[in-house]
Amino acid sequence: xxxxxxxxxxxxxxxxxxxxxxxxxxxxxxxxxxxxxxxxxxxxxxxxxxxxxxxxxxxxxxxxxxxxxxxxxxxxxxxxxxxxxxxxxxxxxxxxxxxxxxxxxxxxxxxxxxxxxxxxxxxxxxxxxxxxxxxxxxxxxxxxxxxxxxxxxxxxxxxxxxxxxxxxxxxxxxxxxxxxxxxxxxxxxxxxxxxxxxxxxxxxxxxxxxxxxxxxxxxxxxxxxxxxxxxxxxxxxxxxxxxxxxxxxxxxxxxxxxxxxxxxxxxxxxxxxxxxxxxxxxxxxxxxxxxxxxxxxxxxxxxxxxxxxxxxxxx
Length: 315
Fold this sequence. Notes:
Layout: H1 6-20, H2 25-36, E1 40-44, H3 51-62, E2 66-70, H4 77-81, E3 82-87, E4 92-97, E5 104-108, H5 115-127, E6 129-132, E7 135-138, E8 144-149, H6 162-165, E9 168-172, H7 180-193, H8 208-218, H9 225-239, E10 244-246, H10 250-266, H11 274-285, E11 290-291, H12 299-309
Parallel strand pairs: 1-8, 1-9, 2-5, 5-8
Antiparallel strand pairs: 3-4, 6-7, 10-11
Helix pairs in contact: 1-2, 2-10, 9-10, 9-11, 10-11, 11-12
């Protein structure tokens, strides 16, 4: 493809991420693909694995405005969406936007937010707008939420409602460096950079308008009926598993379609193949599944079972 093609821009961003982060190429690709698909990201991981740096790096590389919100149990909806304040010189109330008004919003420890705050965040994620004192305000485009939560610490947290979980396009985990070599390379790069946060050292490879164009281009990626049937078969197969108490919703299938298209673009293709669907299945489906109390299986294992057992339909 030409140097100015959508593929070349995406690959430039992916290569830049790989030059900074170590041992997380797969989850980084999923985060990048989710942004291209216009979807929100939930990162489940223990502290210190690079969740915040991942978000800051993506925003920097893609030329997106970034705001960070640290959730606490006493956070109020106005703390994230903004408030109206009285301007005596104008004799009127003026809306002061909150940190939610950015292209990318990093919501740290989202499960520490109380229900009213999660409700306000849900409106922003789904409707791309917020409501303050009965007035509606549109959010900037593109608009992406990257939320983090620590799966080990539950004290002072509020479980995310199913409706909010369903709004996240993908759920990923960065994990620890997979090998000793990766761990040493991480330390070596820290010596080279002279900082714990290398995101400020990289230059943008595109701007917000380019991201919007990529999102639009992803919507034009060709998807054959065979692939559509495969996505539907996977979703319905998991939904019918007796070990699954609540299966993936129809929105899950739509999100698999969106992520599969973005993954095809990431691989410099203008069409989706079944392998794109297989790669999208785990990140899109596992956080939408509630297992029956009688089973101890992890949702990821169930998704993997069905990916391996559901045949790709033929013409």
